[in-house]
Amino acid sequence: MTKRTTVVAMFVALSGACGPSSSSSGSSGTVTRTTPAESGGAETSSSAPRDLERPEGSREPEPEAPVAQTSAEPVAVAQSGTAAPAAAVPQESPWGRPETESGERLPERRPLTGSARDAYRRGMEASARGDGAAAQTAFQEALSSDSTSFRAAYNLGVLADRSGQPDQALNFYRQALRIQPDYERAVEGVVRVYVRQGRAADAVSFAQPIAQRWVRNLSVQAVYGDALVAANRPTEAVDAARAALRRDERFVPAMIVMAKANLRLGRNELAQSILEQALAIDAANAEGHFLRGQMYEAEHQLQPAITSYRRAVELSRDYADARMRLGILMLGGANYDEAVQQFEAVARLVPDLMSVHLNLGDAYRSTKQWNKAKAEFDMVSARSPSTVEVRYNLGLMYWAQSADLTGQEQLDLLVRAQQELTTYRTGMGSRLPRDDQASTFIEDLNRQIDRVRRVIERDAARRQRDAERAARGTTGEKP
Q1: Could you tell me the pTM of the whole model?
Q2: Cys-Cys with 312: which of 107, 194, 224, 286 at CB 3.0–4.6 Å?
Q3: Any domain includes 460
Q4: Residue 408 belongs to domain with CATH number
Q5: Average pLDDT, the chain
């Protein structure tokens, strides 16, 4: 039986906790600082939480660590966004005229102290061992002890998002931004929730004023660029990324936005060139490897795509976008066990994303875990009644399940499969793709239903004849 993988958008927009933060990649041309994993997902390589420090998105001056200029490199941009002093006249940025002095000075980020700091550390440790309830309690304690703990508020948002409460997550992200108005991770959290909900225009409206005010925070500019890409406004996304790159021409998140936007504009070679430059600067950028995987996949180079997605997951184990693509490719390649593992991981990270439950149900169907598959499809039907695609998946599940049965049980499942596929085809209406297989499947099912019915009727007739013969033998009648 032909199987169909649930179609998802190439750029799957997931939770802000699911992929690498846009502030996670520093550039070799700037002074960067190591930060704790603030996502609540324990993405650090060590189980011990690190000291709380200013995230890399902050571009305020670091006078104790000036950037030296060498004749072999283009003009470096210091953490303040201003060009480092050099004997020669600075070269112009390849992205346009440098804009290093403009923009409001970024607000100070206060470190946690005392009991709030201890509670935050406990929250990170609980998250690292997968104890979400303990992490939530600890982060709440940190926020109660210090109302300026924007990181604790953000992590509470992540935990809420991962428990399928996006509205509550938005409230916590906004609370983090009220405390620290340029906090790039909270901006990203809001943007990704909106995009995941199909509200890309709202994501742009939310991020735009923050990006316009805090122009020195390059990570905020990158998040704003991502929102513009999601809203299919790639030309504006290019402008946003270019503005950030004029401040730091080696700022990798802005280069990633530039590559995405150029892909949307059909400038594939330029996008690939920019992406390769970005990965040359930061080979450990998970989003860069994910984007490279998408480029390979678009060219039907599936094995290199799989390699790139795996690398993205290695670098960021909670990268749900990469896990989703891996799961889909594994499902299409009949590697069903790994498909189940990848989709289960995504479902834990983004439980309110219906497409992952459709795919997970398909993976369970392919491994003949019928009850689990039915539970996933029922969840989609209950939470998103308008998602008619679930009828297609249910139809295939009943059809596959019928193969292990005979007689009336098999017939009942075949009829249910035919009904589900018909409901899907009717519900899709004019949206039904020309190459959709539902009509072909329905015809195949109708023929199989007729065959099974004839077999059932023949078996019933044979049993009746046998019973009549047995009755005549008992009474002594001649046949």
Answers
A1: 0.77
A2: 286
A3: yes
A4: 1.25.40
A5: 82
